[in-house]
Every structure is written in structure tokens, then in C-alpha cells.
TrEMBL record:
<dbReference type="InterPro" id="IPR029044">
    <property type="entry name" value="Nucleotide-diphossugar_trans"/>
</dbReference>
<comment type="similarity">
    <text>Belongs to the glycosyltransferase 15 family.</text>
</comment>
<dbReference type="GO" id="GO:0000032">
    <property type="term" value="P:cell wall mannoprotein biosynthetic process"/>
</dbReference>
<dbReference type="GO" id="GO:0000026">
    <property type="term" value="F:alpha-1,2-mannosyltransferase activity"/>
</dbReference>
<dbReference type="InterPro" id="IPR002685">
    <property type="entry name" value="Glyco_trans_15"/>
</dbReference>
<dbReference type="Pfam" id="PF01793">
    <property type="entry name" value="Glyco_transf_15"/>
</dbReference>
<keyword id="KW-0472">Membrane</keyword>
<dbReference type="GO" id="GO:0016020">
    <property type="term" value="C:membrane"/>
</dbReference>
<dbReference type="GO" id="GO:0006487">
    <property type="term" value="P:protein N-linked glycosylation"/>
</dbReference>
<dbReference type="GO" id="GO:0005794">
    <property type="term" value="C:Golgi apparatus"/>
</dbReference>
<protein>
    <submittedName>
        <fullName>Glycosyltransferase family 15 protein</fullName>
    </submittedName>
</protein>
<keyword id="KW-0812">Transmembrane</keyword>
<keyword id="KW-0808">Transferase</keyword>
<feature type="transmembrane region" description="Helical">
    <location>
        <begin position="12"/>
        <end position="33"/>
    </location>
</feature>
<keyword id="KW-1133">Transmembrane helix</keyword>
Length: 319
């Protein structure tokens, strides 16, 4: 979700800057135990999936899809079909917000996919298109914010509200989505994400055997304009959660901005690092741990719902 500073896509208001805030604390909390792995096309032996027993985990490849981007989605799926090795034919879940409600639209899409990839998958007996599922999401704006563009004045009016919903989905809601309840790992692809050459290992298998929580492609910065208020939010969170502050301060990778303690810098001008997550692999249970849930809950509350009575954690993500 990193938006390169030079990119014109200044998309977020403070409400939904949550897109990759995960990196701040959730990742620091997680990685002190299980460091992430960075995807490369390094020369690990190719995984041989013939006759393999069922693994002790489940996985899914997920997309957030829309009809307007069907062509690039088809390209992306075709690249998954050809280049992504797997020991099991995991489902491919296309989350959508209504575009694929109608069965004819789903059938048309799958027929085009079959036409494009030329029949059965080259890596499994199961037809690739049979692995595709459509899962509807109901996106609702938070209660405490204005719901019109005019009143809200988002950073990028042209992408309101879809992009903002997307950010909220991938940064918090996804970990509690019912369809993923029994899924151990998901691999996120964006509709414009592509495998360009064969991956020589099964990423889920690597996550499992190396006990990783998160796999990613790179690290970058979001433009400060989309992260206004974020450092202060973090500061407040750390102040009210001493155990988190301790963990952050002990981290080798985490750093508070220089000069922030004595007010020498305007924190709103300091960019924030984040994982580039057009491709990412997530071990879901790690993001459902109480301390991460607590953090995520604060993210979705801030700042509009601060006065709201805090409910027990387990009921906060009935999504
Ligand atoms: N259904 C739906 N999907 C969306 C919407 N906005 C974005 N998406 C999808 O969500 C995924 C992430 O959106 P991107 O536009 O790639 O956002 P990003 O990853 O922050 O931006 P880049 O770093 O430029 O790729 C993509 O698969 C999009 O197709 C939306 O309004 N509706
Ligand atoms: Mg993207």
C-alpha cells in the first residue's frame, strides 16, 4: 500500500490512512518473534507437489476485484496459473463489492479466464478456474465521519470512497473476514500484480517451514500528505501502552523520528515507512493476537469514535 512520494495518488484521509499502518506496531510486535521473509527469486529447490500429503495448514490466494479492472485481473490470474508453484490447489478468492453478484457475470468471467489460460492448470488435476470463488463484501463507512465527499474533503476526491474502503479492508477487516476464518495463510495479489517468471518455491510452504508471519516484496514510504497525524497517533498509543513502547524501543528496525521528542520537527512532514503490499503473504493468526487486535481496534476507532465505550476485544471485529 505504499504510495511513492512522487506518485499522484494522494488518496487518503486520516480515517483510512490505516492502509498500511499495520507496519507500525503490529509488525514490530510480530517480528520480534518471527522475522518476515522477503520474496526473491532465490534458488531454493522447486517444490515437487506430486503425491505430497496434505500440509498442516491451509492457504488462499486473494484479490479485491472489480469488473472495471477485469482485463488486468485476468492477466494476473494467468500469471498465477503459470508461475506460482503450490503443493495443493488452494482456492483463489475474488473479494468484490457487488460487481460479481450475478451468476452470468461470474460465468462470463470464468469462461474468459478458461479461454485465456487454455484449459486445465499445468500444475494440478483441478481446473484453475474451478478454484476461483467470488466473495461479496459489504463496505460501510464509519459512523463518526461525514459521508459526503464535499463535507469530508478527502485528500484524493477522485478515489473516494472505494480506495479508502480498500485500505480499511486490507489493514484491519481482512483478518476477521469469515471466509478466511479457517485459512492459515493468504497471499494477496492486486489486480495489477503479476508473476513475471516462475517462482521456484511454494511461498506457503516456505512460510510454514520457516515459521514466518509475513512475506513481502519491498519497503517504501508513503507521501506525508496521506499520513498526517499518524506519528502523533502512534506516540499517543505508545504512551498509553507501555508494553508496546518497550517493544518498539527494543526493536532494531523501529525508530521514532529524530527531533520528535523535543518538538524540533513537524511530525506531519516526516514520512512513514511501510511494506509494499501489492504482493504479500500473511499468517492470519498472528494478526488476531490480542495485542495486535487491540492496536487494530484503536486504528479503526481513531479519531472519530474516541468517546465511544470500549467493548470487549472479541466483539469488536464482527465484520
Ligand atoms: N472492488 C474494489 N476494488 C478496489 C477499489 N479500489 C482498489 N481496489 C482494488 O484493491 C487492490 C488495491 O488497490 P490499488 O489501487 O492497487 O492500491 P495500492 O496497492 O495502494 O496502490 P499501488 O501501490 O499503486 O498499487 C487492487 O486489486 C484494486 O483493484 C474499489 O474501489 N473497489
Ligand atoms: Mg496495488
Amino acid at each position: 500500500m505504499v504510495i511513492p512520494s512522487s506518485a499522484p495518488r494522494y488518496a487518503l484521509t486520516r480515517t483510512v490512512v490505516v492502509s498500511f499502518l499495520l507496519l507500525f506496531i503490529s509488525f514490530t510486535l510480530l517480528f520480534s518473534y518471527h522475522p518476515p521473509f522477503k520474496t526473491t527469486l532465490s534458488k531454493i529447490s522447486p517444490f515437487n507437489n506430486s503425491q505430497a500429503p496434505h500440509p498442516p495448514y491451509t492457504a488462499a490466494i486473494i484479490y479485491l476485484a472489480r469488473l472495471s479492472h477485469a482485463d488486468e485481473l485476468l492477466e494476473s490470474l494467468a500469471s498465477v496459473n503459470v508461475y506460482l508453484p503450490h503443493r495443493d490447489p488452494w482456492p483463489i478468492i475474488l473479494f468484490h463489492t457487488g460487481d460479481f453478484d450475478d451468476t452470468p457475470d461470474q460465468d462470463d468471467f470464468l469462461a474468459t479466464l478458461r479461454e485465456k489460460i487454455g484449459g486445465a492448470s499445468n500444475r494440478s488435476d483441478r481446473d484453475f478456474s474451478d478454484r476461483v470463488e467470488f466473495v461479496k463484501l459489504d463496505w460501510v463507512l464509519p459512523e463518526g465521519i461525514p459521508h459526503t465527499k464535499e463535507e469530508l474533503d478527502p485528500v484524493s476526491p477522485s478515489s473516494w470512497p472505494g480506495y479508502h474502503h480498500m485500505c480499511a479492508f486490507y489493514s484491519t477487516k481482512i483478518f476477521f473476514n469469515p471466509r478466511l476464518q479457517d485459512v492459515t495463510y493468504y497471499l494477496r495479489m492486486d489486480t495489477d500484480s503479476l508473476f513475471l517468471e516462475p517462482l521456484c518455491y511454494d511461498p506457503f510452504e516456505v512460510m510454514h517451514t520457516r515459521q514466518r508471519s509475513y512475506g513481502y516484496l519491498g519497503v517504501g514510504n508513503d507521501a506525508p500528505i496521506v499520513t498526517k497525524g499518524l506519528w502523533r497517533f502512534l506516540r499517543d498509543y505508545a504512551d498509553s501502552h507501555p508494553e508496546v513502547e518497550l517493544r518498539l524501543n527494543a526493536s532494531k528496525t523501529w525508530k521514532w523520528p529524530r527531533g520528535s521528542a523535543n518538538g524540533d520537527v513537524d511530525l506531519d512532514d516526516v514520512s512513514v515507512s511501510g511494506y509494499y503490499n501489492n504482493f504479500e503473504i500473511v499468517k492470519l493468526e498472528e494478526f488476531r493476537k490480542p495485542e495486535v487486535k487491540e492496536w487494530l481496534y484503536h486504528l479503526i476507532q481513531y479519531p472519530e469514535h474516541q468517546e465511544k465505550v470500549i467493548s470487549p476485544i472479541d466483539h469488536r471485529f464482527d465484520l
